Amino acid sequence: MKKRCRRSGQVLMISLWVLAILVIYSISVSYRMLVEVRLSRYYRDKTKAYYLARGYLLKLIEDKKEQNALLGGLYFPYDDPAPKPPEVINDSDGKMAGQVTHLIIDEHSKINVNKLINTSGTVNTDLWNTLKALLEDRAPGINDNDAEDLVKNLVDWIDKDEDARTGASSLEKDLYKDYTPENKELSDPSTILLVNRWNEEIFNSIIDFITIYSSSEKININSCSKEALAAVLKAHQPQNVTIDTDGMAHKLIDFRAGGDGKVGEGNDDQYFGSDPSPPSIPEGAIYYINNIPNTLNLSTDASTLLSGSSGLFSKNILATGSDILRFEVEADVRGIKQRITAIVNFSTGKIIYWQEE
């Protein structure tokens, strides 16, 4: 009787162990299936977000091409580069596929640091002075001499020779321990962090106002920021002449923003043009640059600086259009986001930069 009870107890224990193993196995299989389902949903939504962003981006590019044809080769990107409100995109069944936000930035609204060296190999003094003025205005704790040295070191990094413009040594390589200047144009703006005396604080203070992608050193007055425009005006005001360049930049930006003077509002539709008889555009007006001084009640010196025979437009420092635009699109499908950035040269029709995140 005792043996039978003992055997029954053993069978019961084995049965319980088998049952426990089966339960654990079932739970693990169920969990794995749940993970697989969630991963499948994630990759499905990720793929959907990618193609949503890609399709939306390509449509934006085509719309800009059509706009350019309509304007006869003039490019007037948004004055305000802030992201636009999310746009709901529906699928073929009318159901919500996701949301898309985008922004368009004119690369000619910024200072192209790669153009510090001309194609002939000489220094572009106009751009040198503009970058120096931007550093003085924006970088914390940077005075005139500091800004001059920072620009010199950046020029040394880009130019093709090995001669140093700053420091005790006459050779660039002596300024660096673990690497040497590339002696070529920057392939990425963050490379500036490798340049002697440049640091993250200085770089971050001007990153929104510099580029390496614009096709020339010209800055588009129709899209540039007040900070970039003020740097241009400050760098090129004649000696022994006092001009309120910051106030002048404010006037130009406010005029461009429309009647309410608020950038980003719906009436940001006033632009500067180089044609005495400018074409009409669907949502705004183009004002001949030579008439701007009277319209804005600028002083004689300020007028000469802007549109005189040797002014900023005549010297090709400022321009009224652009051919290089940056598009940033982010699609959101049930919380899964996909961002794509593209920079397009509309003169050649080529995409010169593409990044997917």
What labels would you give this structure?
single chain, alpha/beta, two-stranded parallel ribbon, 8 helices
Overall geometry: extended
Poorly predicted runs are none
* β-sheet strand percentage: 15-25%
Number of H- or I-type helical stretches: 8
Radius of gyration: 30 Å
Average of pLDDT: 84
- Secondary-structure element series: HEEEHHHEEHHEEHHEEEE
Specify the biggest β-sheet: 5 strands, antiparallel
What strand line-up does the widest sheet have?
1-2-9-10-11
Q: Structural class of the helix and strand makeup?
A: alpha/beta
Span of the ends, CA to CA:
73 Å
- Helical proportion, percent range: 25-40%
What's the number of extended β-strand segments? Answer: 11
State the gist of this model.
With about 350 residues, this protein is α/β, with parallel strands linked by helices. It is about 40% helix and about 15% strand.
